[in-house]
Amino acid sequence: MRRPSNIIFVLPVGERGGAESVFFEIMRGLDRARFAPSVVFLRDGPFVREVREAGIPVHLQPITRLRDPFNYGRTVGALRRVFLRQKARLVISSHGYGHLYGGMAAWLARRPAVWWQHGIASAEHHLDRMAVRIPARGIIVSSFAAAEAHRRVFGASGAPLCVIHPGVDVERFRSPNPERLARIREEWRTDRFRYLVSAIGRLEPGKGYDCFLHAARLLSAQMPEVGFLIVGEEMRGARSGYAAALRELVAALGLGERVIFAGFRREIPEVLAMSDLLVHAATRPESFGVVLCEAMAAGRPVIATDLGAAREIVVPGETGLLVPPGDPIALTEAMGSLLRDGARRRMMGEAARARVLVSFNARRMVARFEQFLDELLVEMREHLA
Questions:
Q1: DSSP single-letter state for residue 281
Q2: Which of 13, 136, 240, 327 makes the best surface tag, with the fewest CB within 10 Å?
Q3: Contacts (Cβ under 8 Å, ≥6 apart) of 13
Q4: Domain span at 98
Q5: What is the pTM of this model?
Q6: In this predicted model, what pLDDT tens digit does every residue of 121-141 receive, in sequence order?
Q7: In the chain, how many domains are there?
C-alpha cells in the first residue's frame, strides 16, 4: 500500500483571510489515505493556532525583510531543510510572497513546487514579477478572471495554469450557534437596529470600506433604522493607518452610533445570521471573494462591485447585485432596494445558497484539488520513469 504523499503548504501570513480559509478547508478535507498535509507559516498569528487546533502539523519559520539578501537566503535554506526533513512530495505556496520563499526552497531541495497565486496579476506587482520566474510545476488561480489577468500580464509561457474555484463549508453557515449568536447580539447591542448591513474582510486599502461608509451615511439619511457592521482588522504589522483613518471617517460622517467595528472574529456564521445582507465594496479587482460565498451559504443576498471574479460568483438580480466600484450612490441605492423588499431579499438568499451548494461548496473544491494533485503526481512519476 502506497504511503500518503506529504504535501507542504507555505502560507506567508498568520491571520485568516479569504486565501487562508481556502487552504484550511482543503487541508481539512484532503483524503488522508492519499495525502498528508502540513503547513509552514512565515509569520505568527491567530490562524497558526487555529490550524494546530485542527490537528494539522505546523512549522513556524519567521521571516524578516525580503530586501535583505542575507536574511532571505537564510530563510530559504531553513525551508529547504524542513522540506527535506519532512520528505515533502510537493510544496504549494500561497501568494507571490509565499512562492518567493517556498518555491525557491523547493527548487533547492529538488522538490516540485506549485504556486497558488491568490490574487489578480498586475504589471505593477513586483512580487508577482519576481515569483513567476521561480520554477513551478503548475500555477493555480482562483477564477477565470485571475487566469485571464495572469495570461495578459505574463503571457502563455511558463508553468501551466489551473483554475480551482474556492468553496466553503455550507453546513457551517447553515447552522449558526445560538449561544454565540445571542452573545454577540448583546455585545454589539444590535437590537437597536431594524436592519444590519455587514462588511467582512481585512482592513486594507482596496477593500472599499471608505466607499461603504459614505454609502452608509447616505442610506442613514433615508433609513435611520439601519446599522452597519465592519468585521476585520489590519494585517499584523501593517503601518498604513487605514483602520485609524476609517474610524476618523466614521466620526467625520457622524456615524458613530450606527457603525460597529468588531475587529477580527471567528463567529462569521453568527455574524451573517444576524445580518440582512453583506456588502463587499472592493475598489480593485480580486481573484475571488470567499466572503461572498460564505454570505450566500448563510442564505444572505450580497452586493459586490463589478470587478475581478465577482461576476463568476454573483448572478446579478438573482443571488445579489453588482454595482460600479467606488460609487457610493449606486451602493446606497442597491442597499436600500434590498432592505425595503423583504420578499426579494429572502428569494435572493435562497437562490444564493442553492448556487453555493452546486458551484462553491468545499467538497467540490477539495475534489478538484485532489484531481489536480493526482494528475501532477502521475505526470511526475512518468517523467521519472
A1: -
A2: 240
A3: 20, 41, 42, 43, 45, 47, 235, 236
A4: 5-167+361-384
A5: 0.91
A6: 887 888 888 888 999 999 999
A7: 2
